[in-house]
UniProtKB/TrEMBL annotation:
Gene3D superfamilies documented for this protein: Transferase(Phosphotransferase) domain 1 (1.10.510.10)
Name this protein carries in UniProt: non-specific serine/threonine protein kinase
GO MF annotations, alphabetized: ATP binding; protein serine/threonine kinase activity
InterPro entries per UniProt: Kinase-like_dom_sf, Prot_kinase_dom, Ser_Thr_kinase
The protein's enzyme class: transferase
Amino acid sequence: MQMQITMTNNNISKQEVELLKELPEHPNIVKYIDSKQEQGFLFIILEFVEEGSLQALMKNFGGKFNEKVTALYIFQVHNILSGLQFLYKEGIIHRYIKASSVLVKEGKAKLTDFGVAIKRNNDSTEENNS
């Protein structure tokens, strides 16, 4: 993922990186590897997820699902809910779940795109706008 750093998205990108850095590993959350800032760009390096997004997979099937494909998507709902439950326990609310922010690797869904996630702090909520 590559993002141009500007006054409006620099803090957002950095907050997203900090949130991902602090997050323990979970099988249904994309793994953060590293980030680098060079020549006005912020590069966020995440694990390679070869099957792409759930949105791309749905597009490939043209919206026509047979029983096998339908079973796959039902299983992904379980993975997505497992990832959301983990985030909730970690005090994070994703706030932007959509098919393009769910990646699939080896048949398992992994949540990504924490751009507007928020992290709760004790009694209050701290917006990460990342």
